Structure formats: C-alpha cells, structure tokens
C-alpha cells in the first residue's frame, strides 16, 4: 500500500507534534505547516490527500484558509477536517461546512477518533485514484480497440476496391501465399515436414532416374530420343539437388560448433538466399578473404542467415538491397560479452525500419509486426538463441525509413587448423569390380524404389530378391544367408533399416550390407560404425561402385 500525503496546519508547534504522534501509526506521509502561506506552498508542490486545519490561527483563520483552498481546481474535492480547541456554536459549524470542511475534531483530541477519521479519508483518496487509473486504462484500451477496428475496416475497404486487380495478379499472389506458408513453417515444423516430404520425393526420383537410366541403355540409337531422355535425367538430377539442399536446412540436431570459413559458407548458400528474397532485391557482400574462422554450428548459421534474409525481404516490399558484411570486431562490444576475439557478421537492408519500441522487443519469442499468417515471431528469437548458445551476442539497430542492421558477434575459432586435402589411395588399391552374378536381397517398403533397384541389378547380371519390410527380409534369411549382399532402405515402418542391419550383423557377421536412405544424412546414434551407406536417389553406376566396395571389404560412404 503506497502512503499518501496528509497536510497538518496549525500555528502552534506543540499541537503539530501531538498530531504527528497520534497519526504516525497510520504510516502515511505527514506534512506540517504553521501558517496559511506555508500550507499553500506545500499544496502547490505536493499532491495532498487529507488536510487537517486549526480553526483559530493568527493572520488568517481556518475558515478563510479553507475557502482559499477550495478555490484551487486541484483541491475542490480534497477532504478537509477542522480541529477546534474551543466549543463552536452551531452557526460556526455550519460556516465551516459551507466553506468546504467535511468534518470536525474537538480538543481534547481522542487519538482513536482522529486516526479513524483520517484513515477513512486516506483510503477513500487511494481508492479514488485507483478508480481513476483503471478508468484511464479502460479508455486507452477502448481507443486502441476502436483504432484496430477502424484499421481493419479500412483494410477491408481496400481489399474490396482491389478485388478486380487481384484477379489479374493471381500468379503473383500465389507466390506470395507460398512464401507466407514457408515463413509460417519454421524450426520444428520445417524439420518434420521437409524431412518426410523430401524422403518420399527422393524415393520417387530414385524410381525415375533408375528407370530412365535403364531405358537410355535399351533404346536404339536415335538422336531425338536420346536428347529427350537426357533432358528428363537432367531435370530429375536438378530435383535431387534441390531436395538435398532443403534437407540440409531442415536438420534438427544439437549445436556442433566447428571452425567455419564464413566466406565459403556464404558462397554455398548465396543462390538459395537469392531465391528466398526474390529478383527485385540485390545482394551485396563485403566479406574479406582472410577473415578468421568462426566457432559455430554451420548448419544453424545457414538457417540464421535465411531467417535474416527473409526478414529483410519482408521489409523491402518495393525492392532494394541487402548487404552482408563481416569483419574482426574491434569496436565496443555488447554488454555481457566475454573476453576473447570475435567476428561481427551484419545483415543490413534499406527497408522501412523499426521504431525504438519494436527494436526493444524484436528478439522476443512470438513477437512479430507482420500480419496474420505472415510470421511466427521466431526468426530473430532463433538467431538470438544461436548467438547466445555459441558464446556470442546479437545487436539490432534500426530507424524508421532508414533500414535495419542485425549484427551477430561470434567467437573466433582460436585453435583452427586448416584441413589438409585427402590423400588419394595408391593405384594398386583400386577396387576390383564384381564380375560374377550375385544373389542380392533388396529391402524397401516403397514398391517403385524396390522395382527400380531390382531392374538395375538384373541389368548388371545379378539375381535379386525382394522384401517389402525388415521382418519379411528376416524370414527370407531365416534358413541361412542364401545371398551375397543385402541392400536395405533405412526409413521403413516397423523395423528400420538400421535395426535390420544390427540383427543381420549379429546373425550373419560376414554378410555385406548397404544401407540406403532418402535423407540428406544419417543420424550418428544408430551404432552402425563404418557400414557402407548410399543416399537416394542413386544411379546404376553408383550402385555398382557401392557393391564393389561392399564386397571388397572397403567400407566407406557412397
């Protein structure tokens, strides 16, 4: 409970002291005045809740003082209590009420009575102020809601007026809707949806590429047919590259900090960033070639760049430029940043910018200034979390109509050692191709992929068998490993390919196994060691190379 101010007016110090002793139990702020002039000085400087005035005072009696107080607009309703040392006649009491007093206290003062009366008016003052505050808040909310409704109505009118134009711009709006959908599917949603869809799409591409490859080998020589087949194969391969890039951005894993060459990283994702912002936005980069390596999770840094570029795109509705710069951070560091060397990476746009209030909340989770369906408010929050978890920091500077700059402070990888190029094995270690027909078990729950893989193996002269699940494969091999090689998909319902591989390793230790998947990479927690792996879609040539490696005992990533 906040104390209020109580003004005590009496020309006798002893009486003021007695009032103070009686009222100190209320724990309010007691202000004393010995004259009307001194009382008015306090009234003009301070907000007073209750006033106690002595009736009999030299120069100016209490009636005159109260009359003057009531003339002030601020104190027309302030409770005033007269304190009288003499018995007042009824006309005098009526005169006091007429000038504005609300109560009387006679001397000798009964402390409990005085405290009770003052307490009542002090509480009334507090409740009145609280009611005024609540009314002001309510009025503010009403004004805000009214403004929102007016804005919504204005937007509705604009949409109705632009309906005919929007029909003509159907293609552009469809692309914007897809972009908004992409914005809404962030972080966890992107990881789940993109991973599953890309896996199924890789299976389709697997069937398409395998069939086209076999068809190309079997069709008679014809320039037109060969040109059409080559065009179809190239289109499918472009789809493969696109799917792998999407999967690379959809990885959901704990941060794995490593030394990262930022210039090379940015060049690898520059095309994807350009597609994210569209052709009307130019991308400029100022990244020195001799920049020290960063200590950061490269996948998450790529995702952070994508979030920042998408935010910049939304701020540049009429086109503009986005600039990426990187330099050793020598200027004043953000508060709370630990000692050490840092690289400052900044992404700037010349868009509409933000005001100070928006900048202060920009990194809060789920805070967004975009319209409904255009953002989840997690982009800058994710970037902020990456910087903090990486031992760095984030700074946001912006101004209305001047653009926005988001700066990431990331630590330098002090113990960085440049990776040496891999040493090629001597020519004497070349793999011996498989020359005899092999009994091969193909395990895949997708019939199209299974049929395509079997067709490629038959074309190579082998004797493949099919299994649509891991359990069916175990049944076929129950009487003994009547096969030379097992090629199994990883993502299957029931038992995964990794689990099947573990069963086969235990039951048939010498049986070669190739694990294939439509995902961009395999998780490292399957305990599969150095088992041979292939990424779908694969060609007949890649399949042949993987078989050569598996059967020659040289297990490496395909």
Task: Please outline what is shown here.
48% of the residues lie in helices and 17% in strands. With 558 residues, it is α/β, with parallel strands linked by helices.
**Helicity, as a percent range:** 40-55%
Q: If you compute it from the alpha carbons, what radius of gyration comes out, rounded to the nearest whole angstrom?
A: 40 Å
Low-confidence stretches: 183-188, 248-254, 416-430, 520-525, 554-558
Q: Based on CA inertia axes, which overall geometry fits?
A: elongated
Question: What's the rounded overall pLDDT mean?
Answer: 78
Instruction: Report how far apart the termini are.
Output: 73 Å
Estimate what percentage of residues fall within beta strands: 15-25%
Strand order, sheet with most strands: 2-1-3-4-5
Count of DSSP H/I helices: 17
Largest sheet: 5 strands, parallel
How many individual β-strands? Answer: 17
User: How would you classify the helix and strand content by structural class?
Assistant: alpha/beta
Modified residues (4-aspartylphosphate): 54, 489
Organism: Rhizobium acidisoli
Protein name: histidine kinase
EC number: 2.7.13.3
Describe the protein's architecture and organization.
The chain has 558 residues and is of the alpha/beta class. The protein contains 17 helices and 17 strands. It is elongated, with a radius of gyration of 40 Å. The model is unreliable at 183-188, 248-254, 416-430, 520-525 and 554-558 (pLDDT under 50). The modification 4-aspartylphosphate is found at residues 54, 489. Residues 5-122, 439-551 form the Response regulatory domain.
């Amino acid at each position: 409970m906040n104390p209020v101010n109580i003004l005590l007016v009496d020309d006798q110090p002893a009486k003021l002291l007695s009032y103070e002793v009686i009222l100190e139990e209320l724990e309010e702020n007691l202000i004393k005045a010995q004259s009307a002039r001194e009382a008015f000085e306090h009234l003009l400087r301070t907000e007073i809740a209750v006033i106690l005035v002595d009736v009999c005072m030299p120069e100016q009696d209490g009636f005159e003082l109260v009359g003057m107080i009531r003339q002030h607009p601020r104190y027309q309703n302030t409770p005033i209590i007269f304190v009288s040392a003499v018995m007042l006649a009824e006309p005098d009491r009526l005169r006091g009420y007429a000038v504005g007093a609300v109560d009387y206290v006679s001397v000798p003062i009964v402390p409990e009575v005085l405290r009770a009366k003052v307490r009542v008016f002090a509480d009334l003052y507090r409740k009145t102020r609280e009611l005024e505050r609540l009314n002001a808040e309510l009025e503010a909310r009403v004004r805000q809601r009214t403004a929102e409704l007016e804005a919504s109505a204005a937007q509705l009118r604009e949409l109705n007026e632009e309906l005919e134009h929007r029909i003509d711009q159907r293609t552009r709006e469809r692309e914007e809707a897809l972009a908004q959908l992409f914005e809404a599917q962030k972080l966890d949603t992107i990881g789940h949806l993109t991973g599953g869809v890309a896996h199924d799409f890789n299976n389709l591409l697997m069937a398409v590429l395998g069939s086209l490859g076999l068809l190309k080998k079997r069709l008679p020589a014809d320039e037109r047919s060969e040109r059409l087949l080559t065009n179809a194969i190239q289109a499918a391969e472009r789809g493969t590259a696109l799917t792998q890039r999407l999967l690379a951005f959809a990885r959901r894993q704990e941060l794995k900090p490593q030394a990262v060459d930022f210039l090379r990283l940015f060049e690898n994702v520059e095309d994807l960033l350009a597609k994210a912002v569209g052709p009307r936005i130019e991308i400029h980069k100022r990244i020195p070639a001799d920049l020290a390596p960063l200590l950061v999770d490269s996948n998450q840094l790529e995702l952070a760049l994508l979030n920042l570029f998408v935010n910049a795109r939304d701020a540049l509705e009429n086109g503009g430029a986005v600039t990426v710069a990187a330099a050793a951070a020598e200027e004043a560091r953000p508060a709370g940043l630990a000692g050490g060397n840092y690289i400052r990476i900044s992404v700037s746009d010349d868009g509409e910018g933000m005001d100070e209030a928006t900048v202060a909340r920009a990194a809060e989770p789920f805070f967004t200034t975009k319209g409904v369906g255009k953002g989840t408010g997690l982009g800058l929050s994710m970037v902020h979390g990456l910087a903090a978890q990486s031992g760095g920091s984030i700074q946001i500077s912006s101004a209305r109509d001047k653009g926005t700059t988001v700066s990431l402070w990331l630590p330098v990888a002090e113990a960085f050692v440049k990776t040496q190029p891999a040493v090629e094995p001597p020519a004497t270690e070349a793999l011996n191709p498989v020359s005899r027909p092999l009994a091969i078990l193909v395990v895949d729950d997708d019939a199209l992929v299974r049929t395509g893989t079997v067709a490629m193996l038959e074309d190579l002269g082998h004797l493949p068998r099919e299994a649509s699940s891991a359990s069916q494969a175990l049944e076929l091999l129950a009487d003994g490993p009547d096969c030379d090689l097992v090629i199994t998909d990883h993502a299957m319902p029931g038992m995964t390919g990794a689990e099947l591989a573990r069963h086969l390793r235990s039951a048939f230790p010498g049986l070669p196994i190739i694990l294939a998947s439509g995902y961009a990479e395999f998780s490292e927690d399957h305990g599969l060691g150095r088992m041979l792996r292939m990424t779908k879609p694969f060609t007949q040539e890649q399949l042949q190379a993987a078989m050569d490696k598996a059967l020659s005992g040289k297990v490496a990533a395909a």
